[in-house]
Structures are given as C-alpha cells and as structure tokens.
Write a structure and sequence with these properties.
By secondary structure, this protein is mainly beta. The protein is built from four helices and 29 strands. It folds into two domains: 48-381, 7 Propeller (Methylamine Dehydrogenase, Chain H), CATH 2.130.10; 388-424, no CATH class. A hairpin with a 4-residue loop joins strand 15 (218-226) and strand 16 (231-233). The N and C termini lie far apart (108 Å). The relative contact order is 0.10.
Length: 430
C-alpha cells in the first residue's frame, strides 16, 4: 500500500467512526424519548382528573409520581344516564377477579365523552403473602361496557411529587400517611393544583405544577381555623376543592374533614409560602368530604359538596364570594344549638362515594348499595339531586292518580325515564 493511500483510508475510517457515533446518539435519543413518553411505572392509581378530553392525570402515592396518560380520542357522546346497579360485578369480570377484591379509589368523567374512568386497587393477597394491591384504571360507558386501560403500556409522562410523608408514618396504625399525599387535584389555566400531605411540620400542602409537566412543584403549606375543633390546624389536608372566580379573583374553594369550608386566592400560592386559609363556613362535625363539583343548572353557578356521613350541602358561588369578602370565622360552634356557622347551605338528600359532572344535564356518581353491597354507577339530574327509584312513596302505587294541576307529574315522568322506568312514568297530560 502506498503512502498516498493512507489519508484516504483514514478519511474512510473517520467517516465510518462518525457514522457509528451518530447512530449511537440517535439510538440514545430515541431511547430517552421513549422513556419520557412511557414515563415511570405506575405503582398505585389514586386520585384522577382530566386536564383535557384526551389527557388524564393519575396520582401514584406508592411511586411518589403524577402520571399524565394520553388516551386515544373517542367520539363525542350523547347525554345518556348511567343506571348500572352492579358496576363492581362488571368491572370484576373484566379484570378476571372477584368484586370483593376491588377497592374503588376515584372516578372522573371524560369531557364530552359520556364515559366514566375509575381507578381501583385490586387486592394482591391472591398473588401470595405480602403482595401489594395492583393498580387498575377502567372505563365504563352507560351501556355497561367496561374497558381496561393498560397502565404499563399507556403512553404517559411522569413527574415526581416530592416532599412525601415518611414511609413509616401511620394513621390509625394501619393506614400509611403517604396514601394521603394526594387528596384531590384540579386543573386550571395551565396549572395542576394538587392538595394533600407533605413531610413538613406544617403537613397540609398545596402543590402547583405547570402543565405539561416541567420542573418541580411550587409548594405552599396551609393552615385554617376549624370551628368544630376550635383550633388552628396545619396537619389535616384539604379533602375536596374547586377553583372559580370570587369577586374577580381566581380562588380555590376547599373543604376539610369535619367539615369547614375555606377560600384561598390562587395568587397566594407561591413556593415556600405559608397560607392562612379563610374559613367561610362550618357544615357540621363527624363527616368527611366525598365530592365537590361546580355547575350551573340555570340558577347561576353553584357548588355541591357531598359528605361521607351526612347529606350534601348546596351553595351558590355568589354566597361564597360574599362570605370570602368578609373576615373569616374565628369562633367555635355552639353545639348542639348551633352546629353550623357561616354560609347557609341548602340540604340535598344525596350520599355518594364519588361524584363528577357528567354533562350539562347529569352528575354521575359511584355509590354503595346498602342491601347488596354492590357498587353502583348512576346518574342524577342536575337541579333535582335524587333518584326517584330509591324510594317507595304515595306516587308509586298503581292506583294513584295525579290531581289536576299537579306540579310533580312531569318531574316524575322525567326522572323515571332517566332511571330506566319509562313504562312506569305518568302519561303526559292532554
């Protein structure tokens, strides 16, 4: 080989080396992109919220992560009430397990889709001693069709929650404090607001994440005055919340256990801030918030707060705004003569495990049937707040005749049709 051939050989080798290097970089970049798209493994599926019609955020307390799942698009749905009297049985069948092994964690309705998404834990004891519960996410439509969302394969991005409660901290001996890392989530104007516990001495925390996820959270601690307990509280977390404008200011309206209602301007939520929430109502002792939704059924914006151990409270946003513009509550209740304080709510005969806005006409609710023990997925018409078929009363007897001018026959016809009893609905008046 002549000396003149060496430069050409070196050039060829250099090109080959550069090519192999670029190939390795390309493979690495593709791997990093895939890791970002797939996200961290989902170890638990707890609280959920939609940020848009195709993106569902799942809180994972075991993994210390939030996961943004990208769901395949679905056609817009026609408002159709849910009347599934044993959704736990249908879900268990779809997951090849037994209903008693299911623990229902949360529910959210897909915007515009008329489909409920439900997070569950499936008891792991059938997989050997010490097995952790398996996280599951299912979709359910009004016809009762159950679909499983594969959490292991679904495209998603993940972000660490941070500042988690200590792994060995327990409540009532057996309940990990970390399971309350996320107690509720709401998306508002490009940010995800996450309530729950942190590892700080002021444990009640509000974390604010930019969405899509980038960087860490801005974390504020929260204290509030609790009229039932007559003390400032900094540990028990917010349980349910909505975000709306009060007096022109974007504001978080939040409910705690046992059952104070507070307001917090969003502008106050800054990293490292300690927030003194304003208590505007006390709805009574011995119950935990189960659901909180905002809606307008033609009478202006309203907030519905459901509870674990008592009937729901209905209040107008205008009343909340008026109370929020005044000094907050600072004195205890006078039990038993005055068990509530502040905003006067309207009693609503509703007790559910989970509730969400289904569409302009209906709420969708998960609730436990007290006789059978089965979990039901049912709809309730907004503005009426009940299911007529839950009761036996004077109107239900075959020989009952609605008197002339009766105002309820049309309402009963609507509700019975909603609930699948159109054949029992009173005929329209001629």
């Amino acid at each position: 080989m002549s000396s003149q051939s060496f430069p050409a050989q070196r050039s060829t080798l250099s090109r080959r080396s550069r090519g192999r290097h670029l190939l390795r970089l390309t493979i690495l970049a593709l791997g990093l992109h895939a890791a970002h798209a797939i996200g961290a493994p989902v170890q638990s599926a707890g609280k959920i919220t939609f940020v848009d019609a195709d993106t569902l955020v799942v809180a994972d307390w075991r993994g210390g992560q939030l996961h943004a799942l990208h769901l395949p698009p679905i056609p817009a749905g026609t408002p159709t009430p849910f009347n599934l009297k044993d959704v736990s049985g249908a879900i268990a069948t779809a997951l090849h397990t037994r209903p008693e092994r299911l623990r229902f964690e949360d529910m959210a309705l897909r915007p515009g889709g008329e489909v409920a998404y439900i997070t569950l834990s499936v008891d792991g004891n059938g997989n050997g001693a010490g097995a952790k519960p398996k996280p599951m996410l299912v979709s359910v439509d009004a016809a009762g069709k159950v679909g499983r969302v594969d959490l292991d394969r679904s495209k998603h991005e993940s972000i660490a929650i941070g500042n988690l409660p200590a792994a060995n901290q327990r409540l009532w001996r057996d309940t990990p404090a970390a399971s309350f890392t996320v107690t509720d989530m709401k998306f508002y104007e490009g940010k995800l607001y996450v309530a729950g516990l942190s590892n700080a001495s002021f444990a009640s925390a509000l974390r604010v994440f930019d969405f899509p996820f980038k960087g860490g959270a801005a974390v504020s601690s929260v204290e509030m005055y609790h009229p039932v307990h007559n003390q400032l509280e900094t540990r028990a977390p917010i349980r349910k919340m909505v975000i709306t404008r009060l007096n022109g200011e974007p504001t978080l309206v939040a409910a705690f256990t046992c059952s104070p209602l507070v307001t917090i301007p969003l502008k106050d939520l800054k990293d490292g801030a300690h927030i003194a929430a304003k208590t505007v109502a006390e709805f009574g002792w011995g119950s935990a918030p189960a659901g909180m939704v905002m809606f307008d059924a033609g009478q202006g914006p309203m907030v519905l707060l459901t509870h674990s151990h008592k009937s729901a409270d209905l209040m107008s946003v205008d009343d909340i705004a008026q109370a929020s513009g005044k000094p907050g509550l600072s004195t205890p209740i006078k039990w038993p003569a005055e068990p509530t304080l502040g905003i006067k709510s309207t009693y609503v005969p509703m007790r559910v495990a989970h509730i969400d806005n289904q569409d302009a006409s209906f709420f969708a609710a998960l609730r436990r049937n007290e006789a059978s023990g089965a979990m039901e997925l049912v709809s309730m018409r907004k503005g009426l707040f009940l299911r007529l078929s839950d009761f036996i009363n004077e109107y239900d007897f075959a020989d009952y005749k609605y008197p002339a001018g009766d105002q309820w026959s049309g309402v009963h016809r609507t509700l019975r049709t909603d609930e699948g009893y159109a054949d029992l609905a009173p005929p329209p008046k001629p």
